Amino acid sequence: MSHPWRSRSLLALAVTIVAAGGCGTRFEAPPLEASYRQSLVGAGNILQLKNQSNEALLEVEVTIRAASGEVVYTEEKLAGYEVLEVGWKKLGGFEIPDDARIEVKARGYLLPVKVNLDAAGNEAGAGAS
Questions:
Q1: Which among 42, 89, 88 is positioned nearest to 66, based on CA atoms?
Q2: Which pTM does this prediction carry?
Q3: What domains are there in the chain, each with its CATH number?
Q4: d(CA 106, CA 99)
Q5: CA distance 104 to 57
Q6: SS3 17
Q7: What is the pLDDT of residues 65-110, one digit of tens each?
Q8: CA distance 30 to 9
Q9: Alpha-carbon span 27 to 8, nearest angstrom
Q10: Which of 8, 23, 91, 108 is the most exposed place for a label (fewest CB within 10 A)?
Q11: Are 73 and 31 in contact (CB under 8 A)?
C-alpha cells in the first residue's frame, strides 16, 4: 500500500533535481579566480575571470550591480585555464565602478562566485557564499 505523503515527497524531490539542472549539477561555485585591472582605454574596471579547471565552463553568466544600474553578460564557453576579461566594451558601454557587486554563475553549478572589487589594490575578493 502506497502512502500519499511518500508519493508527494518523491515528486517534490524529482522537481527539485530537475529545477537544479539535473543530476550533474554540483552544489558548489564554479572554479573561477577573480581579479581586476583598470581599463587602459575607456573607463572603469576590467573584471578578469580565470577558469581554474582543465574542464570548460559553459554559459558563464556575469551579473554586475552598481548604483548606475545592472548589466548581465554571458560567455557561452570558457575553456580550461582560460581567462575571460569583461569590461565596458563587452558590456555595451557600462563601466564597472569600484563599488560594484558582481556574481558569476556557470551551467552545472548551483552556487555563484561573488566578487567585491577592492579599490585599494589590484585584487578582487572572490568566493561562494
A1: 88
A2: 0.75
A3: 26-119 (2.60.40.1260)
A4: 23
A5: 11
A6: helix
A7: 999 999 999 999 999 999 999 999 999 999 999 999 999 999 999 9
A8: 30
A9: 24
A10: 23
A11: no
**Residue given cell 580550461 in the structure block:** 80
Q: pLDDT (tens digit, 9 = 90+) per residue, 37-64?
A: 999 987 899 999 999 999 999 999 999 9
Task: Tell me the Ramachandran region of residue 72: left when phi exceeds 0, alpha when psi lies from -120 to 50, beta otherwise.
Answer: beta
For residues 90 and 87, give the distance between their C-alpha atoms in angstroms, rounded to a whole number: 6
Cβ neighbours of residue 7 closer than 8 Å, sequence gap 6 or more:
none
- Degrees (nearest 5) of the Cα angle 69, 115, 50? 115
Distance CA 61, CA 106 (A): 6
Amino acid at 68: S
Which residues of 21-123 form beta strands (DSSP E)?
A: 32-38, 45-51, 57-66, 69-78, 83-86, 101-105, 113-117
Amino acid type, 115? V
